[in-house]
Specification:
The chain is mainly alpha-helical. The chain contains two helices and no strands. The chain starts with a helix and ends in an 8-residue tail after the last helix.
Length: about 70
Amino acid sequence: MWWLFANVLAWVFGLLVAFTGAGIVKEGLSIQTALLTAANGATIGTTVGIMTGIALVVRLKPPRKQSH
């Protein structure tokens, strides 16, 4: 269940990227606006995906065997 908290934390950073990106985009419809919006969406997805993915990989790692 702890990975859920990792996902929430990832979305906090993802939303930070979203709001920062929304602040950068200027009003009006243009190619630049479309490209910045697409790049912002890709960055959000990458940020959330990497952080959640790392948490899940760590969670699924088998425990180390101790040698005697």
